[in-house]
Amino acid sequence: MIIDKLIEKIKETGNPTVVGLDPRLNYIPEFITKKYFAKYGNTPKAVAKAMYKFNKHIIDAICDIVPAVKPQIAMYERYGIEGLKAYEKTCRYAKKKGLIVIGDIKRSDIASTAEAYSDGHIGRVDINGEVYESFCQDFITLNPYLGSDSITPFLKDCLEYEKGLFVLAKTSNPNSGEIQDLLVDGTPIYEKVGALIEKWGESTRGKYGFSSVGAVVGATHPEQAKKLREVMPHTFFLVPGYGAQGGKAEDLAVCFNSDGLGAIVNSSRGIIAAHLKDEYKSCFENEVDFALAARQACIDMKNDLRRCI
Amino acid sequence: MIIDKLIEKIKETGNPTVVGLDPRLNYIPEFITKKYFAKYGNTPKAVAKAMYKFNKHIIDAICDIVPAVKPQIAMYERYGIEGLKAYEKTCRYAKKKGLIVIGDIKRSDIASTAEAYSDGHIGRVDINGEVYESFCQDFITLNPYLGSDSITPFLKDCLEYEKGLFVLAKTSNPNSGEIQDLLVDGTPIYEKVGALIEKWGESTRGKYGFSSVGAVVGATHPEQAKKLREVMPHTFFLVPGYGAQGGKAEDLAVCFNSDGLGAIVNSSRGIIAAHLKDEYKSCFENEVDFALAARQACIDMKNDLRRCI
Q1: For the segment A195-224, what is each residue's pLDDT rounded down to a tens digit?
Q2: What is the per-residue burial (b if ≥16 Cβ within 10 Å, else e) of A270-303?
Q3: CB of B145 within 8 A of CB of A145?
Q4: Which residues contact A211 (CB under 8 A, 6 or more apart)?
Q5: For an interface test with A, which of B40, B78, B90 has the most A Cβ atoms less than 10 Å from its Cβ?
Q6: Which residues have C-beta within 8 Å of that of residue B39, sequence separation ≥ 6?
Q7: How far apart are CA B44 and CA B49, in angstroms?
Q8: Parallel/antiparallel/unpaired status of strands A125-127 and A130-132
């Protein structure tokens, strides 16, 4: 089960941090962008090449001290086909460097369409007997609004190819409560969804008691996260919202069990744009070493999390 | 407003049908696939080229008798980058032929990420002053589970570039009720979402009284659709589930107002795979004319719908 591999990587690095690879043009140092704009002009291709090169620097700098990365596909889809090429190459490079890759794609559709997404993101396509892996991720995120038949088509590929899911339960954004917090006979929707996620994961439980169907639970809502940790004992949490979005280590400690397992915490700009912050300027002398700031930010995040869990 | 253009195209063709361009390899006639497998081998590139060629045949055969097409991006994402190239080219070709393009992408994310999706799908990217349209759609579908701040970032591009949205309210799949039908003080979630969609669309209302923020309302749930038509008077419906999924013209008549406006009904395999059905074999003599079956299926669907609305 992929969840066992994720847990073992967390134990190995002692760091439940996942690095959000969500590049923006203004994060990328000039020594990278200049080269590609000179070669390809002011084009999506130049931006995509720069994003991939930027990600490679970050991955090289952090791959031995964190268990996983989470590229957000929207940041690449923004630049169309060229951007998506950078997404695909980033996933492959991160895997090659031993990282678990969580594709943040938040897809959702009816069963026959869900199968197509599953084929493309965690499964395979068979073309007259020749088999291809289109995008190459270990986990993907999914949106549960359509119900069970939009999620269960992914389970076959999870079992066959050792892949996993993180399904949205309670998200980190300010308006997440508008639908997710509505009360059904006294129980909020996110808890109803949480119970479904526990059930969806039953067939994918690994040796540490967690299933390969995890839940997205925002760091910005500690009370709700605490309740979800109780009602979802076999469900691993992917926790967004730490850092830039306002979630603090103290708040998200409730997502972890007493043995320190149970969750992995995402930080994106806090790590990949650390080189732009004054406090990390001393980590590198030359611009080409900017990713040392990301490395230091991962170490700082580890220490901050371990202080509380 | 794009919704006005959609309504005018519906009036012009007298046909509230949207053709779902969801190609599968087994729908595509051999005279197309043979050529590309010979040229590119059993590769995603060959499949993608065949899908685009298939779509072109369909588009050419139907572009004067329907207002819109709705490519389902999952069918293309399944084949990775090559598949997505076929998606992008399909959108551009359909627009060139005068069709309204509804990209069925069902994206959802927090505000800063929603902006990236908006840039890529209905907006523009600016690269050092040069401006690009990545994917080229008129409308896109969105999932509302994250709440207002996951939807409102798209409104700026809707107003600036004359684009629109269809947000999921009540979907057509068998398990759609699991979350969507839960009752909050007696009101189902899909109605709560419906009220939000009415509100999100306020700034985008056009001259026919409908806004450019529509709702997805499945044909398979006539009672719910009837109620939603009442509580969402300014919201145009995109209705999936007709035909192959079991929705009948009688069932979805409730989605329309007495003037025959208010909804557009999708059919995918019922149209694009019509050439495989016995009843449409007489529409074409040679395989190269297979798309005449799709044309006849659009006419039959128009007559079936107009019988009831």
Answers
A1: 999 999 999 999 999 999 999 999 888 899
A2: bbbbbbeeeebeebbeeeeebbbbbbbbbebbbe
A3: yes
A4: A1, A3, A198, A201, A202, A204, A205, A234, A235, A236
A5: B78
A6: B46, B49
A7: 9
A8: antiparallel
Is the Cβ pair B184, A180 closer than 8 Å? no
CA distance B300 to B152: 38
Other C-beta atoms lying within 10 Å of the C-beta of residue B28:
21
CB B2 within 8 A of CB B201: no
All residues of chain A having their beta carbon less than 8 Å from the beta carbon of residue B134 are 44, 77-81, 83
Query: In this predicted model, what pLDDT tens digit does every residue of B272-289 receive, in sequence order?
Result: 999 999 999 999 999 999
What is the DSSP-derived secondary structure letter of residue A236?
Answer: P
Active site residue ranges of B: 106
pLDDT of residue B176: 96
**Domain edges within chain A:** 2-308
Q: Which two tokens stand for residue B42?
A: 């059993």
Residues 6+ apart with CB under 8 A from B265: B16, B17, B18, B219, B239, B242, B252, B255, B301, B305
In B, minimum Cα distance to A135 occurs at: B80
Cβ of A187 under 8 Å from any chain B Cβ?
A: no
Q: Which two three-digit tokens encode residue B134? A: 């990545």
Closest by Cα among B118, B166, B152, B147 to A74? B118
Is B2-308 assigned to CATH 3.20.20.70?
A: yes
ipTM computed for the complex: 0.97
Strands B125-127 and B100-107: unpaired
Best of A43, A45, A76, A106 to disrupt the B interface (most B CBs within 10 Å) is: A106
B147 to A189: CB separation less than 8 angstroms, yes or no: no
Using alpha carbons, select from B135, B138, B250, B234 the residue that is nearest to residue B194: B234
Contacts of B165 (CB under 8 A, 6+ apart): B139, B140, B141, B142, B151, B154, B158, B200, B212, B213, B214
How many contacts does A have with B, using Cβ atoms within 8 A?
Answer: 220
Contacts of A83 in chain B (CB under 8 A): 120, 134
Q: Quick check: B309 pLDDT over 90?
A: no
